[in-house]
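job 3f2a | input accepted
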Amino acid sequence: MTDADRTVHRRNDVHDADLGLRIPSRYRHDWALFADWCSAADHRPIPAAPETLAMFLHEHPAAVATQRRRLSVINAVHTGHGYPAPGRTETVRRHLDTTRASRLDRLGQLLLQRATELPTLGWPSGLFGRRDALLLVLAATGMAFTDITRLRRRDLRLDSGALVATTRAGERFRIAPVPETGDNPAATIYQRWAEIQTFLDQHPGTHLLRHHLTDPVEIIADPLDAEQARQPLLCPIDRWGHLPHAQSMAPQSVSMLVRAHLSGRAPVRKVVPVPPQDDSDTSVELEIELDPDYYDRGTTARRRDHEALEDLTDVFGDIEQRADALLDELLAILEEPQTCR
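job 3f2a | predicted structure (341 res):
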């Protein structure tokens, strides 16, 4: 595009005085519709939250082509002013594509069912089961695998019984309780995994963790400190049950596990018997009765040894004198002039 073309484009732009934006003329109508609705509904048009855009599309039904054009305009205005495009999120895509949304809802129900069937106790089956269950819950929301691996412990929270997850881009996913019963299996699954991470905060290492998964004890969770909040939510687990706190799962691993659980080909973790917890560290003071002649026998032995070894000083002195004499003789031989034959 030449400088002249840019000048023409700028001349045709519309300046939004209220927001301080320069809107291309071809976007004027669709952007004005969105901005006016945001003003009336008390929402911020830029940067707009994905939930705001989804609500706008819901309250302004139109043909799919029209909705896609509106979405394209709102995305373009955002990216043109340095903001992420709010329309490139799962929340908005579901509102725009009802067929896709229906398919994902059915898939989400299946993932939640698989998650509730995974083991929660036993070593190491309970450890893998709790992590994979939360992984399936997050996948059931439609969240991208890459976004799942980027979640930190601070990004999940409970809100009035609902489980709320917030991605790095600011998109929120909410799993509400079942209306009929008020139960929320997703919240329970999250709490079980959070319990594991809290236990490891207090007792690093797997020795005590395997006993906890065999015979659970009550865990008192304190608020996360700054370092704990930044730790990855989902970590890889090796075959010994070690969890590197600072390492996130790879998107490929998440994708593979989700597909494996859906197909029924997920690896089966056998429960390994855990030996009883060692109580040898409990200090028990034993009462020891000493022989009344103990000190007398010790004194007698030391006196006897002293008398038997009394002559060793003279022996060692004699040996040292002989060694010095041999050394002097050797040096004298080495210093004698060598005769030529």
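job 3f2a | The two ends are 105 Å apart (CA to CA).
job 3f2a | closed
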